[in-house]
Design goal:
Largest sheet: 2 strands, antiparallel
Distance between the termini: 23 Å
Number of helices: 18
Helix content: 55-70%
Number of strands: 4
Length: 365
C-alpha cells in the first residue's frame, strides 16, 4: 500500500509542478488528495506500527527543519493568510517519516522507481512542451487560448512572449532529468532535455543544469583532469554566463530581475535590530511590500533570522559532506536544486522537499 502511494506521489511531484495544474474540482487538486492520503498513512503508522528512522537521519531532519518553528517566534501581528502560505509547503516534510521508515527491501525499490520516473516523466513533459510550441507556431493552437489556460492555473505556467515559449513549474525536473540522463550516459535523452530547458528561456534552470553536469564531470574524473577543470573554472563559468545571456538570447528582463535581487539583499543587510537578525520577522512578514522573494534563502533569513538560515542549510550540507557520495546522482540533484533556488524558490517547495528527502534516503546505500 505504501509503495503504491509513494509511486503515485513521485509521479505527481515530478510531473505536477506546484500542484495547481491538476485541479479535480474547485480548489481541490490531486496534490491535496495525495497530501491527505499521506497524512492518513502516517497517522496509521503512528497508531498501529513502529516508525523506525535512523538516529543520524532524525537528528539531521530535526536540525534541518528547525527554521520552521523559528519563524513563529516573531509572527506577531503578521498577516495570518500570508503566514499560512509560507508554512504550507513545509508540511511536506512530514512525508520524510513515510519515506525514511521504509524497510531495506522497500528502500531500494523506492529509489529505483524514483530514478526511473526522473527520466520518463521529464521526457513526456518535454514532448508535450515541444508539441505545444509547434502547435502555436503553425497556428494549430491560438496563443491566446493557451495563455488563458495558463492564467487559470495560478501562475503554474509563465509565458516568454507570444511565440509559444513558456515555463511550467514542473520543468524544474527537466533539469534533474537532464543531469540524471547524462550521468547514466543516455546522451540523446540528455540533449533532448537540454533543448527543452533552453526553450523555457529560464537562465537559472539552464545555468544550474550545466553547472551540475560539470560538477559531476569534475568529481568523477581523474585527479589530473579535475585539477585542470578547477584551474580553468572561473573562465568556464564566465563563458557560460556570456553564452546563456548573449548568444542564446534568453529573456530580456534579466537586468531588471538582477536589480530587484540586489535591492532585496541591500534591504536585508540593513537590518539593525539584533532580535530580528537572529529570529527574523516571522512567517507572513512582507519584504519591500512582497510576500515572497525569488531567492528562498534570503526569504528564510528575513522571516526566521540567521538561526533559521543556518538551519535551512543542514540537510544540504549533510548531503554534500556524506562520505563516498561522488558517484551518487542525488548529490548532483541537490546541487542543482540549491543553485536553481538562488533565482527561483524551488528547494523548499513540495518538489524540492521530496527531492531532499530522497537524497538523504539514497545515501544509505
Amino acid at each position: 500500500m505504501e509503495i503504491l502511494y509513494l509511486k503515485l506521489l513521485f509521479i505527481d511531484i515530478i510531473g505536477g509542478g506546484s500542484g495547481r495544474l491538476f485541479e479535480i474540482t474547485s480548489g481541490i487538486t490531486f496534490r491535496y488528495i495525495m497530501f491527505f492520503l499521506g497524512f492518513l498513512i502516517l497517522l496509521y503508522k503512528f497508531c498501529f506500527s513502529k516508525i523506525m528512522i535512523k538516529k543520524e537521519e532524525m537528528i539531521v531532519l530535526l536540525l534541518g527543519t528547525f527554521f520552521i518553528p523559528l519563524g513563529f517566534v516573531s509572527i506577531g501581528v503578521n498577516d495570518l493568510s500570508l503566514a499560512f502560505d509560507d508554512i504550507k509547503p513545509f508540511l511536506f516534510f512530514f512525508f520524510s517519516f513515510i519515506i525514511l521508515s521504509q524497510s531495506e527491501e522497500n528502500s531500494k525499490l523506492i529509489i529505483d522507481k524514483f530514478l526511473t520516473y526522473l527520466i520518463v516523466v521529464p521526457v513526456l513533459m518535454g514532448i508535450i512542451q515541444i508539441i505545444l510550441i509547434l502547435m502555436i507556431k503553425y497556428n494549430f493552437l491560438s496563443f491566446y487560448t493557451f495563455y488563458a489556460l495558463g492564467e487559470s492555473t495560478s501562475n503554474e505556467i509563465m509565458f516568454r512572449g507570444e511565440d509559444g515559449l513558456f515555463f511550467y513549474k514542473g520543468f524544474f525536473f527537466l533539469g534533474v532529468g537532464c543531469i540524471y540522463a547524462f550521468i547514466k550516459k543516455k546522451y540523446f535523452v540528455a540533449l533532448f532535455l537540454f533543448i527543452c530547458i533552453y526553450l523555457t528561456q529560464t537562465r537559472g534552470l539552464l545555468l544550474a543544469s550545466i553547472f551540475s553536469i560539470l560538477l559531476y564531470t569534475v568529481f568523477t574524473s581523474r585527479k589530473q583532469i579535475a585539477f585542470i577543470f578547477f584551474i580553468i573554472s572561473p573562465v568556464v563559468f564566465y563563458l557560460l554566463y556570456l553564452i546563456t545571456l548573449k548568444i542564446l538570447f534568453l529573456r530580456e528582463d534579466v537586468g531588471d530581475s538582477n536589480v530587484v535581487r540586489f535591492k532585496d539583499l541591500e534591504f536585508l543587510l540593513n537590518i539593525d535590530n539584533i532580535f530580528h537578525a537572529f529570529f527574523g520577522h516571522g512567517w507572513g512578514a512582507e519584504i519591500r511590500d512582497r510576500a515572497k522573494l525569488e531567492n528562498v534563502f534570503m526569504e528564510i533569513f528575513y522571516k526566521s533570522g540567521i538561526l533559521g538560515l543556518l538551519s535551512s542549510f543542514v540537510i544540504i550540507i549533510y548531503i554534500f559532506l556524506h562520505k563516498n557520495n561522488k558517484y551518487n546522482p542525488f548529490l548532483y540533484f541537490t546541487a542543482f536544486s540549491f543553485l536553481f533556488s538562488q533565482t527561483n524558490p524551488f528547494i523548499f517547495t513540495p518538489m524540492g522537499i521530496i527531492l531532499l528527502i530522497m537524497s538523504m534516503f539514497s545515501f544509505r546505500y
